[in-house]
Amino acid sequence: MSADNTTNIPGPEDWRDLLANPYLAGPIKFVLPFVIALGIFAGLYLIESYHQFLVISGLLAAYFFPPAGKESIIPIAIMMGYPWWLVTLAIFLLDVAVSLFVVWNFDLALKIPLIGRLLESGMTAGRTYTDARPWLRRFSTVGLILFVFFPLQGTGAMNGAILGRLLGLDMYRVFSCVCIGSLASSLALALGSDALLDVYHQNPMFGIGILAAIVVAVLAAVMGWRIHKGRLRERIPR
């Protein structure tokens, strides 16, 4: 009588048990975000020419260092000829990797010198944001999506994931909110930049006028944001 080989196939409960093992889950949670990030660059290397790969890799690397952000990296990449869908996908997947790393490894990452300082600055930005908007705790899910969506310095996937932690949301909700906000923001910027580029090709003067108006509006928003943060700091007792 032969043995039933199907009993040796791991079922869903077996996989959950494996991932519940801290000795296995810990390394996976730490390594997987880096694997996703490296996979993005590997994919770009395969589909782009070497020169184009180097350029977009430099732009994506700059995305991690303020004051660069979606509002600058995405339009620059599209004006350099990269398709909007590729730029959107690359930025979105980077945000996925960053948010996964933060929600899974926050306490551990705080102990890593460079990453820890970045996370601490993100905690400061998150506290400033919530102090200025007390209603945010009542509408935490929508507020977190909006925080990630608006492309202002100090917002984004990393600080959004940190803000979600400060709001006490579970990691799955934080990750979902960051992904929704990132995808919506990246799509809006990419499609807007692509449309503006088409307008410029058809009517250069009109395109430049629209771009100038957008730049003025962005600068005004950034200055207003900084003034608001400065006033908020003055109100906080020391």
Tell me the major beta sheet. Answer: none
* Number of self-contained structural domains: 1
**Termini Cα gap:** 79 Å
- Helix count equals 10
Query: Low-confidence parts lasting 5 or more residues at pLDDT below 50?
Result: 1-7
Cα-based radius of gyration, to the nearest Å: 21 Å
β-strand percent reads under 5%
Helix content: over 70%
Number of strands: 0
Structural class label = mainly alpha
Quote the average pLDDT. Answer: 77
Shape: globular
The sequence of SSEs as H and E is: HHHHHHHHHH
Write up this protein.
- This protein is an all-alpha fold.
- It has one domain.
- It contains ten helices and no strands.
- The protein has helices at 12-20, 22-47, 50-62, 70-79, 84-109, 113-132, 140-149, 157-166, 171-202, 204-235.
- Helix 6 (113-132) packs across helix 8 (157-166) and helix 7 (140-149) runs parallel beside helix 9 (171-202).
- The N and C termini lie far apart (79 Å).
- The model is unreliable at 1-7 (pLDDT under 50).
- InterPro entries: Sm_multidrug_ex.
- This is Small multi-drug export protein.
- Keywords: Membrane, Transmembrane, Transmembrane helix.
- It comes from Methanoculleus methanifontis.
- The chain crosses the membrane at residues 30-47, 53-69, 81-104, 139-162, 174-193, 205-225.
